[in-house]
Please model this.
Amino acid sequence: MIRLRRKTKPILLENKSSWSKDAKKVWIGGDHPIVVQSMTTTDTADADKTLEQVYGLAMAGCEVVRVTCQDARDAAGLPAIVARSPVPIVADVHFDHKMALAALDAGVAKLRLNPGNITSPEKTREVVARALETKTPIRIGVNMGSLARDLEEKLGHTPEALAASALRHVDLLEELGHTDIIISVKAHDALTTIYAYRLLAKQLDERGSPYPLHLGVTEAGLPREGTIKSSIGLGILLFEGIGDTLRVSLAADPIEEVPVAWGILKALGLREKGFDITACPSCGRAEIEVVNLARMVEAIAKEYTAPVKVAVMGCVVNGPGESKMADVGIAGGKGKGAIYRKGELVGTFPENELLGQLRLEIEKVIADQYPDYLHETNREPTPA
Model:
């Protein structure tokens, strides 16, 4: 069983542009669902190109999108992005307080900013005052590669250094009266990340600062290695009840990050989105190409958002049993296959008709069990 989730302060993210009132509002923390995030890789100055990627991420299931704002060109693109985005936009700002002010003026839903990195106290106060005025949350984002020099010299590249750096920034914001705070402490390896978040959660709770935590293994790597690192690091923390939002950082198209994040949440039973496909690894008993069949079922799954559970089995040994635990099951045979609904045989069909019959049964399941998802399908229902 997953441990009781850490109690955190709920923080509202919402774009503040007068043209973006239809954009989705997202709560992070409290009793709200754990939120999936990602970040664009486009030039923020190119608003149209960035929005194209934002919409792609949103369609894949991303609920909050971060964009960089490192210079005046980026800042100029932000108003259009915020106004037209279907999800809350977070501005990623480092060092330059003018970019933070421009992002706030553009109406972003959140700033990712380490206030201690703005060297002038006056400039820091100006940014925080504007954030308070616009009711904009701030995410303190500490990475192992950007520790303050004194903490790096004193504590090294350790979980303790990450937590200490985050709390230093928290102190600055609290002193200036800003408490709509979200925090991340990311390392490139899973173990350091786990220990850092555990330590930070403990220290925050001990001091009565129940701020929500944004989970991530930073610069996790190429898709396969990055998925493994993120699944282990973030999965363990979420299992322990730590974490209110997450981003899987892969060296790939950011849209590839989204299904991995959802997969972690689904595997832990924390949230459901899209199909949950159980597929056997194939063996000598299989009388059909199980891997190919599973891939074809996965292709069908991409057309729907309902959390349908599908079992794909290569023979009748485990097929009926696995199907009892799924909404729909398919078990292959020689040139034919059986389709099950909750373990009950629907029928046996020739191999060339299997996928069409499976799709029909899936759509019946959605209509019967998940009617709220009917409008979210990307295709017209298959005629009966």
User: Anything to note?
Assistant: The longest helix spans residues 159-175. The domain at 11-267 is CATH 3.20.20.20 (TIM Barrel). Residues 288 and 325 are 22 Å apart (CA to CA).
